[in-house]
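Hey, can you fold this one?
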Amino acid sequence: MAETVQSVERAFAILEAFDEDHPSRTAADIAAAAGLARPTTYRMLQTLRRLGYVRHVNGRFEVTPRVLRLGAGYLGRDSMAARAQPALDHLSDSLGEHVAIGVLDGDDVITLAASSSPQSRLLSVAIQPGQRLPADRASLGLVLLAHRTDQPDAAALRIREQGYAITDGALETGLRAIGVPIRDHTGTVVAGLSVAVNAARVSLERLERDFLPELQATADHITTLI
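Sure. Predicted structure:
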């Protein structure tokens, strides 16, 4: 087994205890979420507080904007997200809808970049960079899951063969999305690209007929950029 530094593992377990549903937590809650003893958690929190990554407000801890520095290298000017952003903006303007790029992280998909239009703001779910969603409920997540295994099941095989995945009400009633894979120059699937629409405005037929070709063309273009 490779050597590890336990204190580093614990620090990141504590930082990952904060998410969209838990922007602030008590020390006891953090200890339970991170699977650590309370005294250990408290010592780690004090260290992270001294370093400026968390703060203590009204008996609860919350992360500070300093944590954004941890992702700066991944989302820098030469990253896939930065290179793809102009293509996302163009696609969003063309379709008049919300588009996003995401990658897998375990069983979740994390958004790297997104772009919206005035129409897309009608959606109550507008995926933003850094947002984490269950991969099996997001169209771009299903595309990525389908290509993660060498032994796909029938559903994953169908997604691979047709080249896209559709979700209809999986994340929220009335929200539809279609996702396609983004490949690198070797043909390996490295990310997913999706467009989300209001089901009352866009039918499944139109999603495949009108939106899918532009989505695939954009994914192919992004391949040339990474």
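The two ends are 33 Å apart (CA to CA). Let me know if you want another pass with a different chain boundary.
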